[in-house]
Amino acid sequence: MPTLEFNGKHHIYTHHLTVPYRPLETDKNRSCNPTGEDDNLIIHGDNLHALKALLPRYTNRIKCIYIDPPYNTGNEGWVYNDNVNSPLIKQWFTENAPVDNEDLERHDKWLCMMWPRLHFLKELLADDGVIFISIDDNEVHHLRMLMDEILGAENFLADIIWQHRYGRSNNAKLFSNQREHIIAYRKSDTVSHIRVKRDKKLNETYSNPDDDPRGSWVSSSYVNPAVKEQRPNLVYSVVNPHTGESVNHPTHAWKYSQSTHEEHVRENRLWWGIDGKLRYPRLKNFLSESEKKGIVPIDLMLADIAGTTDEGTKQLQSVFQSTALEFNNPKPTRLIANLIEIAEGASTKNDTIILDSFAGSGTTAHAVLALNKEDGGNRKFILIECEDYADTTTAERVRRVINGVPEASDEALREGLGGSFTYCTLGEPIEIETMLTGKKLPTYTALATNLLFTSAGVSVEEDTLDQKNDDGLFYTDDKNDYYLIYKPDLAFLRSNKAILNLEHAKRIRDSSQNNGKKAIVYAAGNYIGQRELTKMGIAFCQLPYSIHER
């Protein structure tokens, strides 16, 4: 498969593996969460670090990802200078920022910015999940190759064309642009069949002229486009029950096999007209069945269906009751709602987790809350925004949408859509170097979450982890018990209490063996050799030993 080469790729190639883990820290004052439950999230911080912070809890859990990254038009002045470990790439980023249209390497920098973020997004995406990325012509060709390399060309779903404006711009020198791209990929072939809920307008074509107890229906032709010579196995006589006449098409075959036809007759699915005298039968297709099956989505989203950027601007102005906005061309909620419905398919569960790691003005959260209000769903959103307006614009929009905007003309917005969110920032990185100095020691739950994920690949919610007994048990599964002997206190870590001794090991052995499990113990040190510990069914994992020695 062809791959895309760009300046800095060899430096950035494994950068996502070196990003430090920074735990999420709740800011109660900025949260809108009266129940105290950690459901929807708005995270303020570098989205690369925020995505890493989500991995322990959300790996393989996100059903729908939508991102609207910088389009790299050359006029944005965006700067995403990641702390890449290579001195060369650090220097290169520093010397070539910010991005502008006179910079011949702006495409390389955009790709360096996107590469590690897409790797994290792939890890977070569920096997039956779909990722949508808004982009324009400046980077769409590069993005397609990047996605082919990271997610696999076989997982490309569509290049959806969205009509983001109605009129044409007479200021354009060449072509006036009316559309943008939304690139869609799946995580795996688990997504092998996509259907979306039927549009209400389609249902208006259904009726019930014969008062069929199964409800409204439309009919479709029973005649095959293929002639008899092409499909001889589909040639047979059909009896009109109203006239008793044996009916054969003079040139064409029927669409269905004779056995299927007989089933249609038994189920009274054939329609011969209101007077029973149609020349050929038609097949009844019931609305109730069509709604369950859904319809195939198309790769064209016209403005009438998905809204425009002008509509997005008016929505934002309505929320803030102001025409002075710092956002140009925000997305409309109808666009995001359409994408969420594609990811959900015809499912009626409506409990999807939606992630937007370039949250901007908060349109994605607005769309999620509106959908929940409309159909009683329990969808959850996670927004990440690195800019300073994460609180004053992104989160503030969501607060207003939840609580209501009394002056708004839209009734639903006046009343408020309900819901809640927890506002988070990023804590200090959990790194060996930091732990060795004793500065910013992680909390017990933060360290336990990180250890469980990085060493065992187990993703759990941080608030479910805590020390469950005096021996340090913090998590258990079908095979293992996990213990952490730790306090975020240097005096404790330098004492013998932080060391696994024989008495402690025997208690752990007895407890785990009684449950038929192996014990995995994290501690600053131990007084027992691993050979003896192995006999006891214990695997010892040492925290940075210098913590204890210093």
Features:
550 residues, alpha/beta, Rossmann fold, 3 domains, 10-stranded mixed beta sheet, 4-stranded mixed beta sheet, 21 helices
Radius of gyration: 30 Å
Count every beta strand, where a strand is a DSSP E run of 2 or more residues: 23
SS summary, helix count: 21
Report helical residue fraction.
25-40%
Annotated CATH topology of the largest domain: Rossmann fold
Fold and architecture overview:
By secondary structure, the protein is α/β, with parallel strands linked by helices. Helix content is 34%, strand content 19%. The protein has three domains: 24-71 and 121-193 and 296-426, Rossmann fold (3-Layer(aba) Sandwich); 200-293, no CATH class; 432-549, no CATH class. It is built from 21 helices and 23 strands. A ten-stranded mixed sheet has the order 1-17-2-16-15-3-4-6-5-14, sandwiched between helices. The chain is globular. The model has no long low-confidence stretch (mean pLDDT 86).
In short:
The chain contains 21 helices and 23 strands. With 550 residues, the chain is of the alpha/beta class. The strands form six sheets. Strands 1-17-2-16-15-3-4-6-5-14 form a ten-stranded mixed sheet, sandwiched between helices.
Please outline the helices and strands.
Elements: H1 9-12, H2 15-18, E1 24-26, E2 41-44, H3 47-58, E3 62-67, H4 87-95, H5 106-124, E4 125-135, H6 140-152, E5 156-163, E6 179-186, H7 200-203, E7 217-221, E8 223-227, E9 238-239, E10 246-247, E11 252-254, H8 258-266, E12 270-271, E13 282-286, H9 287-293, E14 300-301, H10 303-306, H11 309-320, H12 333-344, E15 353-356, H13 363-375, E16 380-385, H14 389-403, H15 411-415, E17 422-426, H16 432-437, H17 444-456, E18 473-476, E19 480-484, H18 490-493, E20 499-500, H19 502-514, E21 518-523, E22 525-526, H20 530-535, E23 538-542, H21 546-549
Parallel strand pairs: 2-16, 2-17, 3-4, 3-15, 5-14, 15-16, 19-21, 20-22, 21-23
Antiparallel strand pairs: 1-17, 4-6, 5-6, 7-13, 8-11, 9-10, 12-13, 18-19
